[in-house]
User: Fold histidine kinase from Haladaptatus litoreus.
Amino acid sequence: MQIPGNLLGPALDSLTLNVAILDSDATILASNRAWQEFGRANDIRPPADTVGDNYIDICAGADDEYARTAIAGLREILGEERESFSFEYPCHSPEVKRWFLMHASRFETRGNDYLVVAHENITQRKVAELKAEQRTEELQEFARLLSHDLRNPLAVAQGSAKMLAMDTDDDYLDDILSSLLRMEAIIDDALTLMQYGTEGRDKEPVRLSNLTESAWSNVETESVKLTRTDDRILDGYPDLLAHVFENLFRNAIEHGEAETITVGATKNGFHVEDDGTGIPAEMRGKVFEMGHTTQKNGTGFGLAIVESLIDSHGWSISVAGSETGGARFEIRTNPAVPKNRFGR
Assistant:
């Protein structure tokens, strides 16, 4: 399908990207409205559309590492060493910091070679990335504080309290030890939330039955029985899933007073259910909230950790009642795409 020539100009002008067409010598033949408006706003010498100017010469005038990168990429395209080239660069003004993505590619028409150069303002995305990096650094510093600056004096306090308990029969010491143990549990749970990321990692195939068996061995199960129904292969992060199952098992044993826990595959993922006291319907919307607990010595982190780790897989988790009156957690490994506002 051939697009009428009288549509190309308006089409390019409708784009928010700054776009220019160059010939095989990098001379600017045409530019769109966004390119021209950027030129006027940034005091580029007339004409703002820069038609007739050599784009490589314009870049050379900046004389910085980003300009040199752009020039090198353009010359490789002009020399037919590559078909396209992209890179991100800062373009700050005195008033505001900005970042752009430059993309250049070669095309041929009627026996002649041309280049299309586009600059996209990616400031919003870049600012979000920088904030995320700063947040990660802050979390790493907080994790260091928890794992060293708090854990070490906590261990000293626990040791001293245990020594006193050996020589003194005092209910106050029991309260102190209980509080210290709860502090340790909170630190452990907080570190779990902060330390397990998925960036740069690949998922691995892992069998559901192997995950549950391994997690079960790490939990104080007392006389509780584990049963398994249908098995399946999951594509996930085994270390994170281990924490998911361990926390769900502990929740059923310590809070739900379960006697039997059942794990099995479902059509859309897998489930973990028990025959314990269950979770009241009016409380199910709160169980994944950070800090929510119904136990005196609970940390309120367990199920929040579960939801966070499930989210890191791109999955979803929900809670309902089991057929025996306990709790049933269902994990969907292929969550349905949310409907739009038209219900489609």
Summary: The first strand starts at residue 18 and ends at 22. The CA atoms of residues 102 and 119 lie 4 Å apart. The longest helix spans residues 123-167. Residues 124-195 form one domain.
